[in-house]
Amino acid sequence: MQLHGIAILALLALFHQAQAYRPQELLAQRALIAEIGDATNQHITAKPCPSKATVFNDCFLTSSNAKDYPWGSPEISYSAAGDPWGVHLTGPYPDGRTYLVSWFTGGPTIKRNPTQPNTSALVTYASVQAAPSASAPSGENQTFAGSIITYLRLYTDTAYANYSYLSPYIHHVILANLTPSTTYTYQVSARDGNLAGNYSFTTLPLPADGAPSPYPLRIGIMGDVGQTRNSSVTRDHMLSNNPQVVIHVGDSSYADNYHASSPDLNKPGGTNQQRWDSFNVLWEPLFSRAPVLNIPGNHEVESSGIKSSISLTTASWSFPTNFPFQSYAARFPPPGSTAATLGSITASMYYSTVLGGVATLISFNNYIAYHRGSPQYEWAIKEFQKVNRTKTPWLFVQYHTSSYHTYTNHYKSMECFMSIWEDIFYRYGVDLVFNGHVHAYERTHPVYKYRRDDCAPTYVTVGDGGNIEGLYRNFVDDISSTTKKTYCEGFTASGKSPATLYYTNPGGWDSAGPRPANCSTVTFQPASGVAGGPPVMCLNGTDPLLGFCQSSQPNWSALRDPSFGHAILDLQSDTTARFRWFKNLVGTKVAVDDIVLERQASCQNRRRRSRHLSSS
Ligand SMILES: *[C@@H]1O[C@H](CO)[C@@H](O)[C@H](O)[C@H]1NC(C)=O
Ligand SMILES: *[C@@H]1O[C@H](CO)[C@@H](O)[C@H](O)[C@H]1NC(C)=O
Ligand SMILES: *[C@@H]1O[C@H](CO)[C@@H](O)[C@H](O)[C@H]1NC(C)=O
Ligand SMILES: *[C@@H]1O[C@H](CO)[C@@H](O)[C@H](O)[C@H]1NC(C)=O
Ligand SMILES: *[C@@H]1O[C@H](CO)[C@@H](O)[C@H](O)[C@H]1NC(C)=O
Ligand SMILES: *[C@@H]1O[C@H](CO)[C@@H](O)[C@H](O)[C@H]1NC(C)=O
Ligand SMILES: *[C@@H]1O[C@H](CO)[C@@H](O)[C@H](O)[C@H]1NC(C)=O
Ligand SMILES: *[C@@H]1O[C@H](CO)[C@@H](O)[C@H](O)[C@H]1NC(C)=O
Ligand SMILES: *[C@@H]1O[C@H](CO)[C@@H](O)[C@H](O)[C@H]1NC(C)=O
Ligand SMILES: [Fe+2]
Predict the structure, then answer these.
(1) Residue 46 above 70 pLDDT?
(2) So what's the pLDDT on residue 482?
(3) Less Cβ crowding at N or C end of the chain, within 10 Å?
(4) Would the CB of 391 count as within 6 Å of ligand 6?
(5) C-alpha 196 to ligand 10 mean position (Å)
């Protein structure tokens, strides 16, 4: 079947070639995203949970496998003696030529009231060496200077104060204006200033006059990765698929699952910053080899111990001490960061960049304000307006929390966000949306307002990286063996309810709370019999809002699988891509989800002037 699909594509490719000079006809022939392949309508159902109708958390929180590497394991250990560790690349920057390399030296200081060293006068270096080429027979050797920062997690809460954390040195060096499609080996400064290590990565292509085609372009996509044994399987499988760039949709270290006093003492809602250090060690083999495009998730917020001083609406935090997203911001500055903004929260939340010169990626932080009038809203609208589909035909969006999925946990948690953004994604013809948060895999068909629509984005949920919280295994449409109802019907607003309408509050966290003022286009169903209770999305087995309550897998859900894994997207041309999902338990030889996406230009929203058209 797959071969059949590819054969069809080969014909399509010929057809496109032949039609290239008659673009109007081409537009009439094609619609936007078509899916070709065996897996387009496959439905996979999880094994039933033992007690699912009553305590749905049991199904995913208590897996004996859901354990991070114990502190001291070689996989997460590093030397604090001064050699670089936790090397990671961020990029590409919007110019398509610049990357950021970051790493650590030394170890943290953990005590009451540590004081920060003044690192502002310290300079650090990274040296890159291009392989010899025809134009530079001895290779190109460039050295870049950068800066060192630290951050301080100063706990004011007396229960944590003794465990305040001063980070190791965090080195950031901007590798400006590298040559596209070039393999570089690189070295970075140790604490003593000498270059150390032997890393390598390949820059992404950048189409230009005379440059070879940027296709095929391989993009890895993963989320909610954590630091368990399952995480390292995801890492190794991703590595063996050799992506040119990796999109990571947020939730990295899960350091906030620990008590400040010990990186082995679980405490959901706490935070132990040493778990960020181990995270950077565990993921170095991938992150030092392929540039990563991160966004923050809820586990990057880390309010524990400092919550009382946080306001997400007044921007009253100050770098480098005690602000939300602090560890994330210090360790993973976004592409586009300059020497002046490295480590600054204002620069660390959302960004747009271009992959291989052909795919625009617009990255939201859905844990800060995104409503009309907010800075993020104004910024994103401008980014959408700037996209030139002739130059960059592919348009992707990423943010952490999944909009379209059918798992019980976090079901419908993005109604508020979507009430603002879904129409905008549609209007600008977004091809694919990448999400995580839901610890499982799901891919939709192109969908708009819960209806299949070939001109709408395809939504991919890959919160299946393998983190400590384990898998989500229950679907909203599962029929409970005890209540004979679906999840949607079986829970009430007063219980621990997947049927409670959660939403990400602009300016707040992912939780039920007062309804944000600007979600007015979402119609909420009042909770049955609970005066003033939280709204619920589904009552009494009816379907008050299309798609809210399901008794079978909705037809916009193409494939779902409650397993760990990662996705690979191969852009093959301006119009075709192969998308695959690899399940950890199956390996990388066979993809469990494997489809070809054909961008179809008959959709007004995705219509692009072809290169031929623009010159006529
Ligand atoms: C840090 O050192 C630089 C010069 O090395 C100095 O200009 C700056 O004022 C110092 N900052 C603090 C907070 O002491
Ligand atoms: C590149 O240049 C740096 C700085 O001059 C030097 O230390 C390093 O050894 C050189 N690397 C190679 C591979 O020549
Ligand atoms: C913090 O350390 C001080 C001094 O060692 C000690 O007296 C105090 O009990 C500790 N507090 C906690 C909560 O561990
Ligand atoms: C660096 O690693 C590469 C393989 O990745 C190897 O070919 C090369 O010899 C190493 N260079 C040094 C200086 O160790
Ligand atoms: C997670 O890792 C454990 C330990 O290696 C393994 O037994 C288990 O099957 C993995 N689970 C998944 C869903 O990949
Ligand atoms: C879009 O990009 C194409 C190709 O580079 C260029 O010719 C065209 O002028 C651009 N359109 C706009 C509106 O900038
Ligand atoms: C809601 O949106 C309006 C503009 O449409 C804006 O003026 C207002 O500040 C927003 N209110 C909130 C609470 O976000
Ligand atoms: C569902 O609604 C019907 C009709 O309104 C009503 O008769 C029935 O009692 C309701 N069932 C539940 C479980 O609320
Ligand atoms: C999908 O399901 C919806 C709602 O049940 C229905 O209206 C629609 O016709 C279905 N679409 C397809 C393509 O089957
Ligand atoms: Fe999350």
Answers:
(1) no
(2) 57
(3) C
(4) yes
(5) 35
**Which ligand 4 atom sits nearest the alpha carbon of residue 185?**
1
Quick count: other Cβ atoms within 10 Å of Cβ 413? 23
Q: Among 314, 368, 371, say which to mutate for ligand 7: greatest number of ligand atoms within 8 Å of CB.
A: 371
User: Of 229, 291, 246, 279, which is closest to residue 567 (Cα–Cα)?
Assistant: 246
Task: Identify whether 410 is a catalytic site residue.
Answer: yes
3 state SS of 310:
coil
> 565: Cβ–Cβ under 8 A, 6 or more apart, which residues?
234, 237, 441, 462, 464, 581, 582, 583, 584, 592
In eight-state DSSP terms, residue 599 is -
Ramachandran region of residue 389, left (φ > 0), alpha (ψ -120 to 50) or beta? alpha
Residue nearest to atom 13 of ligand 4 (CA): 198
The SS3 of residue 482 is coil
Q: What is the pTM of this model?
A: 0.84
84-210+217-344 has which fold?
Answer: Immunoglobulin-like (2.60.40)
What one-character DSSP code corresponds to residue 518?
Answer: T
**Residues 564, 265, 288: CA angle, nearest 5 degrees:** 50
The H or E element that residue 583 is part of is strand 576-583
Residue 401 Cα to ligand 10 middle (Å) = 6
- Domain spans of the chain? 84-210+217-344
pLDDT > 90? residue 124: yes
Q: What are the Cα distances from residue 475, in Å, to 320, 484, 570, 575? A: 42, 14, 29, 33
Render pLDDT for 426-466 as a digit per residue (tens, 0 to 9): 999 999 999 999 999 999 999 998 888 888 999 999 999 99
The residue ranking higher by pLDDT, 49 or 207, is 207
Given a contact cutoff of 8 angstroms between Cβ atoms, the answer to whether 270 and 259 are in contact is yes
Asked if 485 contacts 251 with a C-beta cutoff of 8 angstroms, the reply is no
447 vs 515: CA distance, rounded Å: 25
pLDDT in tens, 552-599: 788 889 888 888 999 999 999 998 999 999 999 889 999 988 888 888
Distance 333 CA to ligand 5 centre (A): 32
What's the whole-number mean pLDDT along residues 329-346?
86
Secondary structure percentages of the chain, helix, strand, coil, to 5 = 20, 25, 55
Distances in Å between the Cα of 560 and the Cα atoms of 242, 404, 444, 511 are 24, 11, 9, 24
Q: Is 371 in the pocket of ligand 7 (CB under 6 A)?
A: yes
Annotated catalytic residue: which of 410, 437, 445, 566?
Answer: 410
